[in-house]
Amino acid sequence: MTTETGELRDLPTLTPGPAELADLELLLNGAFQPLTGFLGAVDAATVAAAGRLSDGTPWPVPVTLAVPEDLVKEERLILTDPEGVPLAVLTAAEAWKEPAPAPDADPLPEPAPSGWRMAGPVTPLRTPEHGPFRGLRVPPDEVRLELAGAPALAVATRTPLHRRQLGQLRQLAEKLGARVLVLPLLGEGGHDALVRAVLSVRRELPGDALVVPVPLAERHGRELLLTAHVAAAYGATHLFAPSFTAADEEAAPLTLAAPEPWAFDESLDVWRPTAKIDPDDVRDEPTDEELADLLDRGEEIPEWFTTPAVAEELRRAHPPRHRRGVTVFFTGLSGSGKSTLARGLSDMLVERGGRTVTLLDGDVVRRLLSAGLTFSREDRDLNIRRIGYVAAEITRHGGVAVCAPIAPYTATRAEVRRMVEAAGDFVLVHVSTPLAECERRDRKGLYAKARAGVIPEFTGISDPYEAPEDADLTIDTSGLSPHDAVTRVFDHLVAGGWVRTG
Ligand SMILES: Nc1ncnc2c1ncn2[C@@H]1O[C@H](COP(=O)(O)OS(=O)(=O)O)[C@@H](OP(=O)(O)O)[C@H]1O
Ligand SMILES: Nc1ncnc2c1ncn2[C@@H]1O[C@H](COP(=O)(O)OP(=O)(O)O)[C@@H](O)[C@H]1O
């Protein structure tokens, strides 16, 4: 082992979050040029405010790295992947704190989470080796070499290319005399279906088109400009951009190219420029909502709209609801009825058959998965994240996860919703039985102990419960039989299509 490696072994390590790891890959491979590291406080502020680094260089979005407080004094950090494999060394230039948003701040766009950040250049230790379609993830300099300075029209997309975009792309590429470079953008969660869908339409693209997946985390705002910077780093001269403003055009490092509007001509059964079609013969495309609805109900995706191969990928990624994974997450005070409802619902689902059901009850989880955790905020959050992780995996594999913890904090529940929705569907049920009724029931005698001060930090008595504002269903079980309460949840699942009756 070399001295350098020996030294590195002693450095503290940090595993960045999924979005930060994606940013790291793009910092390291040059897709985020001119950036070579995570931004400091001043740059992050000028970028957020004006789309420029503090030296005036245009850059659209803050690229920052969150660090726990105990690492802020370190001079160097090893950044690792989630399995702990070292990927890069960060040489700290500055540790800074993102302030908490003002209480009256506009909630949109969502502010960056508050907390410590570490800025500084990153140097690679090794290239990430795993992940689906890793072989296609050619670095920007190699793609630039392949394009050899000739005109190249990039299309950066988070959704499959349907027949309209394919026609527009062919027309625009021909007009510009450009090669086509498709950049499927991989955000959080599994995006293998997107890459397969793009590869499946390769034959509809010019023969020399390149497909290079890019791990670009989704941002709130300035996505077009960010993709323009990334596309330019890969050597594109033009970016396929159906709509943009004059300010976008001025700030973009390449030419934003608007395609001509296309539509499906019913009289001829072809897609072509709208200008050439009699308005009576224009057939409307399904909207995103209509498409999602067709998939939810397991209905045919029209072949005039997209190719059969893309439709197949869409169906695989979004199976009909009665086969899609779903997490039913009960939240509420102790004694509100969560366990009773969760058990009743699981039984009802098992009795019907056709779906695999896993019950993650609050008490049971605490005896196994979360044994040893306390009821401090940190431990409650960790407990809920663990439940969320398991529920998301069950959901990813098409099962039904039924969870019944107190889950008192809005932010942590939102985190679980995000995790699960990257894999399938999430149904939040607020068991809103009032505290007085829960305390009257006091099945385990815990409220009496909490009132007497024997149990500290007891939810509803000496610890907070943040009632959800995003519940899909709210049930107050006072004055309701357990059977009727369970039936309400079951009926919600039937109405939503997750369970089929008859
Ligand atoms: N301090 C304190 N506060 C709240 N609850 C307490 C506490 N101490 C023990 N218990 C018992 O633990 C059960 C709640 O655990 P959870 O894992 O669901 O809680 S949390 O989601 O992590 O907040 C809860 O079970 P349920 O009654 O099923 O909700 C209680 O029985
Ligand atoms: N409609 C109802 N739904 C659920 N529980 C009810 C209902 N009516 C009365 N209960 C009683 O309330 C208590 C709820 O306890 P439990 O389900 O363990 O709640 P939690 O898991 O939220 O602590 C049980 O004793 C249950 O029999």
TrEMBL record:
Residues reported in the UniProt entry to bind ATP: G332, L333, S334, G335, S336, G337, K338, S339
GO biological process, one term: sulfate assimilation, phosphoadenylyl sulfate reduction by phosphoadenylyl-sulfate reductase (thioredoxin)
Reactions this protein catalyses: adenosine 5'-phosphosulfate + ATP = 3'-phosphoadenylyl sulfate + ADP + H(+)
Occurrences of domain ATP-sulfurylase PUA-like (ranges): 7-97
An example Gene Ontology CC term for this record: cytoplasm
A Pfam family that the UniProt record links to this protein: PUA_2
Keyword Iron-sulfur: no
Domain APS kinase, chain residue ranges per copy: 324-476
GO molecular function annotation: adenylylsulfate kinase activity; ATP binding; sulfate adenylyltransferase (ATP) activity
Record flagged with keyword Nucleotidyltransferase: yes
Family matches, as InterPro entries: APS, APS_kinase_dom, ATP-Sase_PUA-like_dom, P-loop_NTPase, PUA-like_sf, Rossmann-like_a/b/a_fold, Sulf_AdTrans/APS_kinase
EC number in record: 2.7.1.25
Recorded superkingdom: Bacteria
Pathway the protein acts in: Sulfur metabolism; hydrogen sulfide biosynthesis; sulfite from sulfate: step 2/3
Keywords assigned: ATP-binding, Kinase, Nucleotide-binding, Nucleotidyltransferase, Phosphoprotein, Transferase
Annotated family: Belongs to the APS kinase family.
HAMAP family from the UniProt entry: Adenylyl_sulf_kinase (MF_00065)
Function: Catalyzes the synthesis of activated sulfate.
NCBIfam families: apsK, PRK03846.1
Name of the molecule in the record: Adenylyl-sulfate kinase
Organism: Actinoallomurus iriomotensis
Gene that this polypeptide is encoded by: sopT
